[in-house]
Amino acid sequence: MGSVHPATHLESLVKSFSFVPPASVPAIIDCVLASSVVSVANLLSFLLQSFTDFGEAHQSNYILCHTSALCHIIKKDRAQSDVMNQFISTSFIPLLKVIDPSNSELLNETEELVYHLVFETGSWELIGKTLVPFCLSSVCFSIGTISKDDMDADKQSTESSSEPLGTLPGKTALQVLTSLLDFSLKSWRGIATSEQKILKFSSSLDVFIVNLTGKLSNLALWLLMLSAEDRLHAIHLILPIVLRSLNVFSAFKILEHEPQCSISRAHFLEKMWNCCSSLFQLGHLERRDAYRILSSYFSSFCESDGQEKFAEINIDEEFDFRGNEMLWKQVQIGLVDKDSSVRKMALYILKSLMNYNSSSFLSRNDQCFSNSLQPAADAKKVAIMSQDGNTSHDGPTKRKKWAEKEAKSMGIREVCHLDGICLNGVERWKVFVLLYETLEEYGTHLVEAAWTHQCDA
């Protein structure tokens, strides 16, 4: 059987990308190479120049097949460095631009194909110099700020308006950056044994993770102080992966800057808490976002609880804002907030504070637990009195008498007085959480009795 001239079927090959299953593309490419005189380099060049924005009905399948074909061929090409650079600028970025930002499934599948290629070719340094800066400039452009001077980790000015490649939608750019860090972390964990999980900056992957974490850390802190929409992007897209990375690499240096910049989990948490402190002083929406930030922090912390930290570099000690009086004050206020979502987040934060199993922390901050309890009781009583509308001090009301009787029947009165034992601050908070969750189902009228017999003991 004679070989087929390449010009006969290459265009048909590209058109078939709208219809064939993406999983079959590598085998199809191998058949084309085996049954024709076309070389790997020629086929690669043809595909790099053949990207077409097909109709919406076939766009998703075409994008996945086109990307799969290029990734498969690049693995066969020996001059991978030059080819990867061309692939990113002439194919991957244009593909990202035509993907609907709301089509997260297509975006995730396309990214997965490319990131596996980056991993197999070891092109982390190239991605760090091309795709990452492009996405960062796209985020800045979408916000209306072309210069990134406000971002400590990236002092290079950008001119997005004159960039030949244009820009990506801001949300797409953020998705690319966060998914890239997520994939690189998973790759790092996959190739490291339990004895080797130490950051020695010995590979381009280590350096890439460190630098991208630093950039996203500063980007998150920057966005948190902008508009409500920007804060939501920072809270939901950036913070979870940044905190996860910082939990693994608790302290490190950003290598690409001179002089070297130090960034650590402690440093980031301190700045994050400063953002929350500022937001707490503003309106209801800002305060709610501050609770979201803290909830995101404690969520990531609980996920990594008990996990070993693998950082070899230790720049400074852990920043722990859990002994901060303002945090406790805001938790107390949140527990009686009119917004049910804020109450739930405040309760979650309180539970997280108590579940942190560090004996040194508990002993060091037990006084803070105890001191924080009485203001919380006062705040709850004020809220209950305002709801009741009856502030008479002539004696117990019918409502209070009934509440006390109900509290006795539930055994509430006895919890803090078992054999004369005096509960410490942590234990009293645990009692409150139990009562708060239980009594909320019955109504706030019972919470007053709970405070009277439990927390004021």
UniProtKB/TrEMBL annotation:
Q: For this chain's UniProt record, which GO biological process terms are given?
A: tRNA methylation
Q: Give the InterPro entries listed for this entry.
A: TRM3/TARBP1
Q: Which GO terms describe its molecular function?
A: tRNA (guanine) methyltransferase activity
**What PANTHER family is this protein classified in?**
METHYLTRANSFERASE TARBP1-RELATED, RNA METHYLTRANSFERASE
Q: What is this protein called?
A: Uncharacterized protein
